């Protein structure tokens, strides 16, 4: 019997197929999702993993067994599924394991309008029903079984994204895109069609075994091919998508990575130009450049914990126009508060193409500090090591502390955050300062304590 505690995470379902879950459990999840959401209809999409169509089909059988209809949009990116949920006004299920290795698969769930389903918003209830029904069997609903209908929304999705960004009149751009054999290979050609873009595709073949590299651009080794191709072709910009194409990373014309915090600041200024005085959400490991630049452009910021559920909650609560995370998730009010890397990419292309400078010079305006990047340390006792770090910095002049998410220590011209992983015995360190030398000193001092 499946151990659902191992596969039902804080925000989604994820595990190894068929070792940890399979189509029989997917069918139970479908029945439980329809029951908890009281849905009359559900939209379902899936990525290119070999197990995805079968799992999605089983989930659909579970949904229809409760009397709800199913619209299957087939192969899609996660943000395309969010679009369908918002556009059609239906709860949704996306079958993907994002950037995880090929043997994994999962389900990202949402209510109508792409509203997130997490532990506190229905996922715990879905798990409880699924656990019960794996023992007792799914009871008959007494309802007439629902229908299954196929629908292609890729063109509508692409058109909607392009309606949100003014790309008229941009200069011609050479754009290298590394889809990592993920769903970007499916969506990018349609989204960019008709734009003054010379597209250089890399790994657009849909292949859930990821034969070229992991579809995880957060890991620098997975950007190496893109960086080399940008330099080789003399491209203006390089874009890399993860497996389900909801995150987008950029490299400049030199092949150097562009900080997701700089992208957040750049897109924030564009959204504030359209929505003066708007609220911008950012998580606490995002660069201090973001709130500074937002304030300079007349906006206000709200700082949140790391994690998309916190961002989406604050987006809804504050009416924010945009939100960004340093993990390259970007959220838009006009996209149902959901994250879409593709829309952020269109903003980058519009900003780059509307002026003559290269991308490296353009983003330098939004990138004011030196940073360490995220550094992980395996520790036996996360709380004890965090307490030791706090003690080491206590009493220093001008130093402050907050515990919104882990421990953030702030000095006159620097800050660092040390936060525990929720799933592994790790502490994650991020350091930012005015210059690289200060970053290095702080990094080494904190790591010496953490790893003692």
Strand tally:
21
Arithmetic mean of pLDDT: 96
Gross morphology: globular
User: What would the CATH topology of the largest domain be?
Assistant: Alpha-D-Glucose-1,6-Bisphosphate, Chain A, domain 3
Q: What is the first-to-last residue Cα distance?
A: 41 Å
Q: Report the CATH C-level class of the largest domain.
A: Alpha Beta
Domain Alpha-D-phosphohexomutase alpha/beta/alpha: 6-135, 160-255, 263-369
Organism: Actinacidiphila acididurans
InterPro entries: A-D-PHexomutase_a/b/a-I, A-D-PHexomutase_a/b/a-I/II/III, A-D-PHexomutase_a/b/a-II, A-D-PHexomutase_a/b/a-III, A-D-PHexomutase_C, A-D-PHexomutase_C_sf, Alpha-D-phosphohexomutase_SF
Domain Alpha-D-phosphohexomutase C-terminal: 374-447
Q: Topology, pairings included?
A:
Layout: E1 13-16, H1 23-37, E2 41-46, H2 52-65, E3 69-75, H3 78-88, E4 92-95, E5 104-111, E6 115-116, H4 123-136, E7 148-150, H5 154-163, E8 173-178, H6 184-192, E9 197-202, H7 224-233, E10 237-241, E11 248-251, H8 260-274, E12 279-283, H9 289-296, E13 300-304, H10 308-318, E14 322-324, E15 330-332, H11 341-353, H12 359-364, E16 370-371, E17 375-378, H13 382-393, E18 400-402, E19 407-410, E20 414-420, E21 426-433, H14 436-450
